[in-house]
Specification:
5-stranded antiparallel β-sheet, 15 strands, Creatine Amidinohydrolase, single chain, alpha+beta, 4-stranded antiparallel β-sheet
Length: 283
């Protein structure tokens, strides 16, 4: 979501509510499995979106992106962003090519509760530098998952995420951030993947019941982005590649629950849930 200032406290979820969110998360994970299987050279991005829409319809879920308000309503159930497109790419007649990086983001509501996830899919054989960028993006999300039960404040987690990206020679997108999630897709708090003077003003405590959509967006070179004339597609200003990965996560007394983990096929972007460690003083 677009970064903005908001100090309202987050809504903490009960165990029953987390169980309902998990059902929505399973559906999102299965939808993304369809996307991963379809994403090959020669496939049009609109074909992937149509398959996901049919899947949600079959299972009685409400896709949360289609019709999302803006200068023009978002027209699809997925955001499909290729190469220099960071987020919010509109599915169309574009044909995927060998070497592309495809970002797939989708969310749905099932029985009144939402889940949101994004993956980056390499198309065919990608360059070593694109592969390293994707690896760092996935590692950055895993850092957040690992640290959530071990830190008191979100800024401690975000600082570690930012440091990992920048030490690899890449940059964190600062114009867009993650978000709380629950009965609606975008709830408080805002969840930046970096730390600066402004984000420290809206820092929040990590406590059981928090549900967060954490979504690092990592650019190969500079962090600046622009929005194209369709009013949705966000691209890197230098037109270098970007990656985007996301999970909906719940912080509980037992650790971290990955709401959008895939229980089916092997899921190479989902680490194991994490339980708190004792005596961890921070980094």
């Amino acid at each position: 979501m677009l970064r903005a200032n908001n100090n309202r406290p987050p809504e903490l979820k009960t165990a029953r509510e987390l169980a309902l969110m998990r059902e929505s998360g399973k559906l999102v994970a299965r939808a993304l499995r369809i996307c991963r299987e379809m994403a090959k050279p020669g496939v049009k991005t609109i074909e992937i979106d149509q398959a996901v829409e049919a899947f949600y319809t079959k299972h009685g879920a409400i896709p949360l992106f289609k019709g999302y308000p803006g200068k023009t309503p978002f027209p699809a159930v997925t955001c499909l962003s290729v190469n220099e497109q960071v987020v919010h790419g509109i599915p169309n007649q574009r044909v995927l090519k060998d070497g592309d990086l495809l970002k797939v983001d989708t969310a749905c509501r099932l029985n009144g509760w939402c889940a949101d996830r994004a993956i980056t899919v390499p198309i065919g054989t990608i360059s070593p530098e694109k592969a390293r960028l994707l690896k760092v993006g996935i590692e950055t999300l895993q850092i957040a998952i690992d640290l959530l039960p071990k830190r008191r404040w979100w800024s401690e987690v975000a600082s570690a995420m930012q440091r990992h990206v920048e030490q690899a020679g890449f940059s964190v997108v600062t114009a867009y951030v993650g978000h709380g999630i629950g009965r609606t897709m975008h709830e408080n708090p805002q969840v930046p993947n970096y730390v600066d003077r402004e984000t420290r003003k809206t820092d929040f405590r990590l406590e059981p019941g928090l549900t967060l959509a954490i979504e690092p967006m990592v650019n190969m070179r500079r962090s600046e982005v622009d929005t194209l004339g369709d009013h949705w597609t966000v691209v890197t200003r230098d037109r270098m590649p970007s990656v985007h990965v996301e999970h909906t996560l719940a912080l509980t007394a037992q650790g971290v629950q990955i709401i959008t983990a895939d229980e089916g096929a092997f899921d190479d972007e989902t680490p194991q849930a994490v339980t708190p460690a004792t005596g961890d003083k921070g980094i």
